[in-house]
């Protein structure tokens, strides 16, 4: 079996496992079938692309396990027109999925080397803007956003992100400590966030002006 065939087989297995774990959005499943996850990993780690686990990508950051990526994306309820803010570009894999499903994506990464690497693999996407900065303060220049997704764990939702989320918008973020985290989806109603727990999870900490405890 060629390497390409092996990746295709692993990708289909990943999709089957996502369905078994109650990922129901056909749009999310279709885009994860189309995007070669292996391209977002260092070459020496490509064999781990479809493993059901987070994988280190350097700078103490990870690419999240496929299930968590699917769950977060599904919770955003994208319809194809949304203006999305992503906190934590990382490998760029989640960014690519968002770019396929939303109108446009602004993605912030605090590590310049990761942002530069992601820019190479995300070059085909004309609706992605990559910036280097502090994700805890968001990106006010292009606010408000219809959707915000945070790929690192905080003790609380950074106030700037609440402010930059459009009324009626959705924010998905892992909250908690290094020992215990819950992935939550928040809907902005009347300038306040109403949360819904999605799943236990394990993310690297969100670092910036709003520090985790």
Which helices and strands occur, and which strands form pairs?
Layout: H1 3-20, H2 26-34, E1 55-58, E2 61-63, H3 66-75, E3 83-87, H4 93-101, E4 104-109, H5 112-121, E5 128-132, E6 145-150, H6 159-164, E7 165-176, E8 181-189, E9 192-201
Parallel strand pairs: 3-4, 3-6, 4-5, 6-7
Antiparallel strand pairs: 1-2, 7-8, 8-9
Task: Tell me about this structure.
With 213 residues, the chain is of the alpha/beta class. Helix content is 29%, strand content 28%. The chain is built from six helices and nine strands; from the N terminus they run H-H-E-E-H-E-H-E-H-E-E-H-E-E-E. It has helices spanning 3-20, 26-34, 66-75, 93-101, 112-121, 159-164; strands at residues 55-58, 61-63, 83-87, 104-109, 128-132, 145-150, 165-176, 181-189, 192-201. The mean pLDDT is 93.
Short description:
The chain is of the alpha/beta class. It has helices at 3-20, 26-34, 66-75, 93-101, 112-121, 159-164, and strands spanning 55-58, 61-63, 83-87, 104-109, 128-132, 145-150, 165-176, 181-189, 192-201. The chain has six helices and nine strands.
